[in-house]
Amino acid sequence: MGSQDNDKTVLGKIQYTNAWPIFYYFEPDSLHGTVEMITDVPSILNRGMGEGQIDIGALSSFAYGEISDSLLLLPDLSVSADGPVHSILLFSKVPLEYIINGRIAVTNTSASSTNLLKILMSKALEGNPEYITVDPDLSRMMEVADAALLIGDHAIKASWEDHGLYVTDLSELWNQWTGFSMTFAVWAVHRDAAENKPEVIREIVDALLASKRQSLSDLSPIVYEAMKTIGGTMKYWQRYFENLCYDYGARQRQGLELYFRYAYELGLISHEVTMELWQEKTRIQVKE
After folding, report:
1. What residues does each domain of the chain span?
2. What is the dihedral of CA 125, 252, 258, 266, to 10 degrees?
3. Cα–Cα distance, 40 to 75 (Å, whole number)
4. CATH superfamily ID and name for 8-82+182-287
């Protein structure tokens, strides 16, 4: 189900910097329909999509897989990486191969990253660690575990610290192991919203794609905003945003299909995931 107010369309926006280019020039007030934008961490947006309180927007890839039957994927929108992502990082006291059966502290802010870690630990490294949930504070996490998974801006800030820990980029490890890219977040729309509000949904998608194009044509404003808000250097943020992929095409789909297959094999997700694009759905409707 979508949001209960038929006159209002609710859009979910990831607050992490990695999603900024898709939202940076997006102005909901400029649209013809009434659009309310909710900005939060992925876990909150995931819940909102699952409970039908959000009609359209960003959510963790894993969370999408859990409720894929009720959603349509939006084409050409994702947060992906074909190699290191620089914001999904595992910090450890010793090299990774020595903690595959140890204790790892994770946060509850993104299911995609936590389950990627579980897939890599089990299938790539043949380990079976214990996972504990801890607030995203590196010092506190390392007091109670052998390694700590941080994501988003918490991971970025921790990567700048001189803590003497080993740092493993999970996206890079996934790419080295599988040869595929990794998609951490997707954009999707509830099927009923797509059917009942096609004009509004089309307008939102077009505006998001336009924001992405404008952002990627000149990253300077976003780079300066990141420096002002979070810190770091111009060189760091320029490289960070240029390294990310904001498309969702064949290569991203192949990597995500493999991710879901492993998640299903390990029992992390209860069903096999079939991904359907919103664009495909609209073409079917036109034919009918």
Report:
1. 8-82+182-287, 88-178
2. 70
3. 22
4. Periplasmic binding protein-like II (3.40.190.10)
| Overall pTM > 0.85 | yes
pLDDT tens profile 231-285: 999 999 999 999 999 999 999 999 999 999 999 999 999 999 999 999 755 544 4
pLDDT digit string, tens, across residues 133-177: 999 999 999 999 999 999 988 999 999 999 999 999 999 999 999
The alpha-helical segments, DSSP class H, found in the chain are 20-23, 42-50, 61-66, 111-119, 138-144, 152-159, 170-178, 191-196, 198-217, 220-229, 234-243, 250-265, 278-287
CATH topology agreement for domains 8-82+182-287 and 88-178: yes
Contact 109, 134 (CB under 8 A): no
CATH number of 88-178: 3.40.190.10
**How is residue 153 written in tokens?**
């801006």
